[in-house]
Amino acid sequence: MIAQRFRRVLIHDHSGRHVKGWLSGLADYLREDGAEVRVVSDSLYPGALRRSIRKNRGILCPLALRWWRKQVSQVDHVFVWNGEREFHQSIRQACRLERVPCSIVEVGYFPQKRYFTVDSRGINATSSLMDDSLDWIQAKHLDRVEDIRQTHLCGKRWEGDGGYVAVPLQMANDTNIVLHSSFSTMQEFIRHCEIKFPNQRVLFKKHPRDPGEYESMHPIHAGGSFLDLAVSAKLVYGINSTCLLESVLLGAPTQSIGKGFISAHQHQLDKLLAALVDKQIPVNEKDMGYWLDKYCAER
Hints:
Layout: E1 8-12, H1 18-32, E2 36-40, H2 50-55, H3 61-73, E3 77-81, H4 89-98, E4 102-107, E5 115-119, H5 139-153, E6 164-168, H6 175-178, H7 186-196, E7 201-205, E8 220-221, H8 226-232, E9 235-238, H9 242-250, E10 254-256, H10 261-264, H11 269-279, E11 281-282, H12 289-295
Helix pairs in contact: 3-4, 5-11, 8-9
């Protein structure tokens, strides 16, 4: 049975795309046990307040906050997708003012499209996992990492015989870059890597959705899988990309220079992987009680 704190739920998905791809199972699970679930996206904002909500500023900003406080006051729990953009600030502030628990949801890790995660505070660098001691990790959690390693990597293991440094590039507008790194563009990061690794082979891999064109003395790969590069790399070097987590899963030497899970748990990466695997929820899971009880925010 769903706890009383999930009887009336609001799911905020600004773009409206993520509920269909990742959170429909969560909404169905809650509804099937009697919960009232409302999904709010950008298209449902009152027209006059839309700009203030999107930008979290403007003369109508106080009215936008008031509107959100009314929505939030009618529910027991709020789930917000990502939670780090400007347009998330008004709903998160409303949750604080109304003392309604707000949990943050995002894509999973191994692989992203088959899982989602829920956290009481945020994602990646703002996640509750950042200051988690991981002392709760047991052998059973580590065993699950091995299962994921077999299914997600399809038998791939790090070989490191290529003699090059593999570098995944990220979307410059990703909140992990904007809020949790010292770089504002990928060209700036490329230049950093050229200086960092003089007289060494470096292979860059563009993010698959990045239309940008970059210049480097080293190859910049647009297609293919980053894992195929990581298998033979002597080092994987990046900011805070999910590719770095996959690299750790692969067993490759991995260095993360942005704020994130790897930089926070550099000396216990096995436990970090176990925690990430434990946190991710299959999108088609029929019983999500374990994760909602363990990882959701509380009043």
